[in-house]
Amino acid sequence: MHWELELVLYLFLIISAIVSLYVKDLLTAVVSLSVFSFILAMLFVSMGAIDVGFTEAVIGAGVTGVLFIVMIYKTSRRSND
Amino acid sequence: MKQSSDSPIILLLSRVISPYIMLFGLYVIFHGHYSPGGGFQGGAMLAASILLIRISAEEKVYELQFKKSFDIPLGAFGVLIFFGVGLTAMLLGGNFLDYHFLPMDWMSKADIRAMGILLIEVGVGLAVMTILVAIYDNLLEGEDA
Questions:
Q1: Enclosing domain of residue B69
Q2: Residue B81, min C-alpha distance to chain A (Å)
């Protein structure tokens, strides 16, 4: 892959990680974490590890997102700010 | 889920997409021995297609697709397939998971090896799919939805 494209992917990877750490809304954090996993899967594929990228896309962007969303709906925030 | 929306559009879209994800998961499992993918990835895709229906529909609907009580028994059956193939090869004189010794004499040796890894991948895929769905069901347990 062209290195310019990989550089853009790395930039979005870091941006999505920082967003999911510092955002207040938990649902936004989960979606941002799914974006992180998907970009990471594309980087794995571009590095030639197709199996690892496949697993990361299915587990990281699919199943754990569902499980996190379930846990958000099962719990509630203590303060109302 | 208790907070699942009653929107018919979401339910319709998940009902359209879910069988295609399931078909691709089966493709990944059955072509796992000579292309990227395999039992774990295919099983996770099958679990994703079942979870898609589970988060968009209510309990009465998703019980029709895959019953909650089938989770753990089918997962145990997948593990039984894996260890059954391995121990059969071991009892017939080979090492653990040595497909060369499986009792399928009507095929050539190369075909026996290909069929052995296929059986292993089916077992792994079944176990991964049912256990991922079982995690979801246990998280929602006790909720009067």
A1: 8-139
A2: 22
